[in-house]
Amino acid sequence: MRTLKFLFVITILILFSCGTNNSSTSNSTDDFKIDYEKFTLDNGLEVILHEDHSDPIVAVATLMHVGSNREKPGKTGFAHFFEHMSFNDSENVPVGANRKMIPEWGGSRNGGTSNDYTVYYEVVPKDAFEKIMWIDSDRFGYMINTVTEAALEREKQVVKNEKRQRVDNAPYGYTDEIIRKNLYPEGHPYSWTVIGALPDLQAATIDDVKEFYKQFYGAKNASLVIAGDIDVEETKKLVEQWFGEIPSGPDVEELNIDPVVLDNTKSLYFEDNFAKLPELRMVYPTVKNYHKDSYALNILGEMLSGSKKSPLYNVIVEEQKLAPRVGTYQNSSELAGEFVFRVRANAGTDLDEVKAAIEEGIERFETDGVNTDDLKRIKAELETNLYQGVSTVLNKAFQLVQDNEFKGDPGFITERAKLTNAVTAEDIMRVYKQYIKDKNYVMTSVVPKGQLDLAVADSKQATVWIEEVKQDVANEEVSQGEEAVYEKTPSKYDRSEPPFGELPVFKSPEIWKGELDNGMALYGIENNEVPLVQFDITIPGGQLLDPKGKEGVANLFSDLMMQGTKTKTAADLEEAIGLLGARINMYSSSEDLHITGSCLTKNLNETIKLVKEIILEPRWDQKEFDRLKQALETSLKGSEANPNAIASNVYDQLIYGHDSRFGINGAGTLESTKDIFIDDLKAYYKNLSPKEATFHIAGAINQSQTVEALKPLKEWKGERITIPNVDVQPKNTGGTLYFVDVPDAKQSVLYIGKLALSAKDEEANNLDFANEILGGGSSGRLFQTLRIGKGYTYGAYSGITEREAVSPFTIRTSVRANATLKSLEIIKDMVNDYKNSFTDTEVELTKNKILKGNTRAYESLGAQLGILRRISKYNKSNNFLDQDQDELINMTLADYKAIIDKYITEEDMVYLVVGDKATQFEQVKQLGKPVVQLDIYGNKL
Q: Which residues form the Peptidase M16C associated domain (predicted)?
């Protein structure tokens, strides 16, 4: 569960495109649309059904028209808190089943809360469809009688941990609160954050929960979308059975709020304990969602900063070198909108200079006007985004449910596309003058602690409420508690758990292979659901080929290669890619270098020509190199304040050692990158060879069409490259607890693990299977105990990194500071007991969860690309997924115990705690392990 501004994957910036002959779009070339059927139950629940038989899965999304905008001062954060409460118990579903059973059926589930709504969603294999009807309808209409004091108190702790993790322990975490308090008048529904204030949450009572439910959780205050492999007539009957008896609820009064008008500009500063870089935001009040001007404002945001030719990028990044990037964008919600300027500047940069640069960039835009090529590029990119946004059944469900509830039209995607496509240069200049030019705004200067001189002059101090975490945890201990005693709500239907339907059979996709004359292997999957392709060129080596002492070369190299070609500047290249509606990217990983891309199938030929130009005609622009190196320094400096980044970097050092390439951040360190020069990148370029490289592609294209599109790459030549063999040896850190101090941290980040095996190891699958019960998602024991049972964390998981080198098995979580020791004790005991507590029941659960999960795991083009990568990198057979399933089915209890005994052994594990030393250092010593203190770079103190 999470708070969110916009949950939906589909961008509001979409544009009509030619139709395709698939189940989700019309055949007309005039409009793009999602086919659906809508009906309304007698209780007022609006239901939208969409058929998509491409995969044997079903997505369900229930949107409640209640977000934080329905709360009252003094009771903030309640919509989000109630979302958490809804996932606990209900009358006809076993205790804890909502969180535990769905993953065990092979499904996924979650929810989200925004200013305006709360949404609950699931994706399950087809055979669990009626089970989802049962569990989802019971959560919706039959949960309120099951709420207990224990459940209330436990969920309070979970939400507190979410806030600590996302707000209190995060750089710039309080900025949203500052902006809302000052942009909106006191009492305005958007004047507080979605997650709310912890004192308000702590004061919540069962009566508050029941009142909220009765007021907002009626059937006529919701929309339900079911999308996927369904039969419409049969589904209608099931919806009537499971959802038809839910009470209608009272009428919820529509909110009519006058647009926000600021009488003056407000400038505020805040010293951030976790920030290492100064950040400036300027926020203007604009228009709400679906307003006719929102479409032009969206494009205005892209115009101002979304490309290397944009005025703000040129002034702030290129000319004045104040920051690595700048963002401008429109946020539209149900009641109001905001246009945001956001710059996270280089270390030590005076934000007065940033403010002046923004003003200069705006003036330049006003003088030059709208660039028609830019407008053409943006619309081409939006054409591709349209299809990407409806490429999964869950994404389509989100789009349908949002537009139905807030516009009354599930198919508004068609009209929105037309409205966006109709935006003209005159519209963009008009909204700029109407909402931005000479208008008042709220400005925040968030600066590192002790660097107030960087804040904009004459700013006033912002006030936020900051929690004091006390070591006394007696009042924060929670438990499952007793089940509620209540009389079940009468029903004319049997509301007990329905049986599974017919078992869907997962089949590995058909894979084709080939090879170009230059030695590059080809792997492909044809998928014609949408007219898109995604591709990836994997070149072995990656960060393993970094020169010793200059770790970070591969990372910088991949960035610089995208900054133009011999005939194109960085801005020209970006524009050429954008005009195709394509995306091309290059990045390095620990063992490989990747060139990735996506585009409409019709544009693949031209996109590949640009890929060829990028590979064979690098520009080697010194100015771009200098900019990228400065941006990297800024990024590395910023990560020094992030507890999760600190934990990840230090953990890798403890596992692999300071001298191993795997023990160093993939982007390098401030020390290793300071002496990297452009000649180092030119030397690295020699490693870019098609020998041993592999081209992977998934989408609406066959083998012969792909080979034809790849003709330009035949000019790419090169010799086979020798990849260094990294000898990975345990560093004898097991059995020791290491502590890194982050003063005043509200949570402790825990990493616990040991070196295990390579993805090429014959036991790799077995370890994955054996981990599923321990830390494989929300049904795992770690999550169920530390979050559901104790309320110590927002999430806890375990698993192994997939790479060719030997990789660690790792347990990860962030727990509230004053529960650090107790969490460590629970994890230690759980791992020690794991082998003995693993029974035939766990064997069957593992099989069921993974086998059924495979039906939805490979729906997207990205997931199918992942299949191809694993086949080529780890020498797997085309049907390895089927073989893996057979291996899983044949694993015995003895096999599981042997794997656990070999790889999940507590006494061999290194423990890392990143948290507040003042309150936790002495506490963790009670775990009984040697304790060593490290600095944030992993050096012993």
A: 406-676
pLDDT, mean of residues 532-548: 96
The arithmetic mean of pLDDT across residues 37-46, rounded, is 98
pTM: 0.85
CA of residue 478 relative to chain centroid, distance: 29
378's enclosing H/E stretch is helix 372-388
What pLDDT, on the 0 to 100 scale, is given for residue 16? 27
User: What is the average pLDDT value for the chain, to the nearest integer?
Assistant: 91
- Residue type present at position 316: I
- Counts of helices then strands in the chain (DSSP H, E): 31, 25
Residue 504 lies in a domain: no
Contact 150, 479 (CB under 8 A): yes
| Rounded distance between C-alpha atoms, residue 914 and residue 414, angstroms | 49
Domain boundary among 231, 256, 281: 256
Residues 304 and 423 occupy one common structural domain: yes
CA atoms within 13 A on the CB side of 423: 32
Q: What is the dihedral of CA 758, 763, 768, 773, to 10 degrees?
A: -140
- pLDDT recorded at residue 506: 74
Which residue range is the domain that position 808 belongs to?
737-934
Is 429 part of a structural domain of the chain?
yes
The Cβ of residue 680 has, within 10 Å, a number of other Cβ atoms equal to 16
Q: Are 546 and 640 in a shared domain?
A: yes
- Transcribe 301-336 into DSSP letters: HHHHHSSTTSHHIIIIIIIS---S--EEEEEE-SS-
CA–CA distance, 802 with 771 (Å, rounded to integer): 14
b/e string for 633-661 if b means 16 or more Cβ within 10 A?
bbebbbbbbbbbbbbbbbbbbbbbbeebb
CA distance to 256, 330, 446, 653, per residue, from 262 (Å)? 18, 18, 21, 51
Structure tokens, 360: 């200069």
Percent of the chain, pLDDT > 90? 75
Do both 187 and 111 map to the same domain?
A: yes
**558 assigned to some structural domain:** yes
Residues paired with 800 in a beta bridge: 809
Do 528 and 630 have their domain in common?
A: yes
241-255, pLDDT tens digit by residue?
999 999 999 999 999
The CB density around residue 207, as the number of other CB atoms within 10 Å, is: 8
For residues 276 and 245, membership in a common domain is answered with no
Between CA 873 and CA 482 the distance in angstroms is 51
Question: Is residue 710 domain-shared with residue 833, that is, in the same domain?
Answer: no
Phi, psi of 355, rounded to the nearest 5 degrees: -60, -45
Q: How far apart are CA 919 and CA 938, in angstroms?
A: 20
Neighbours of 433 (CB within 10 A): 12
Same domain, 188 and 285: no
Return the axis-axis angle of helices 917-924 and 820-837, rounded to nearest 10°: 40
- pLDDT bin (cut points 50, 70, 90) of residue 742 is very high
Q: How many CB atoms lie within 10 A of CB 836?
A: 9
Whole-angstrom Cα distance, residue 405 to residue 916? 45
Number of domains making up the chain:
4
Rounded Cα distance between 175 and 168, Å, is 11
* Same structural domain, 174 and 278: no
Q: Distance between CA atoms of 597 and 311, rounded to whole angstroms?
A: 26
The answer to whether position 440 is within a domain reads yes
Which CATH number belongs to the domain containing residue 327 in this structure? 3.30.830.10
Beta pairing, strands 583-588 & 592-600: antiparallel
